[in-house]
Amino acid sequence: MHFTTVTLCTAVLLFVLETRALPTDLPSRxxxxxxKRPENEQYFLDEVIQPPEPGKCLxxxxxxxxxxxxxxxxxxxxxxxxxxxxxxxxxRGDNATTNPLRCIFDNEAxxxxxxxxxxxxxxxxxxVSATVMTKDVNHxxxxxxWGRVEDSTLKREDTPGGRVDEIIAIGPREGSLKRIWSRPxxxxxxxxxxxxxxxxxxxxxxxxxxxxxQLTEWFEDVEF
Length: 224
Known about the structure:
Strand order of the largest sheet: 1-2-3-4
Helix content: 25-40%
Order of helices and strands: HHHEHHHEHEEH
Shape: globular
Strand content: 5-15%
Number of strands: 4
């Protein structure tokens, strides 16, 4: 039974990687698995427990995961990172057989896809302004999940969290700050969407999942 479950899990996740979707003709056990698969950003939007307040989204470019997490924790009234928004079990990165996400996190491509979808969902929750931590505020990297997913999502008009009108870059140390993008004045103000309630009734008080050091150890090779 254990072997069958693991095999099915791997097969479904490989299908997700190749097609960005899930098959609809799985056997009953697979359909139960399908219902829990993070195959797109909607999965993460449905699982939010602590959405970022307007102006408090803190993203970061590659290599700054630990720095951004620690910065947010020392500025709790100003920022929230991707590691503060979902239930702890969605960040669990150990290889124990009891970890249902191990067949995602053991595969580099699947792990990247997982965090791309989580990152897109976070960007869709941001409102008013967003901040990105980067090593040089004058040269923002175009690669990684920031360049591939988060930057463009923040610039959309039609996200459930509202609409971001400016993006600010900060350095890992205090004092370095620069506005790197603002929405054009010609953008129709009247089209700004109302901020939807995307939080389930099970919304929790602020939770402490894993330390910045533990998360960085598990996911330091993810190209944020």
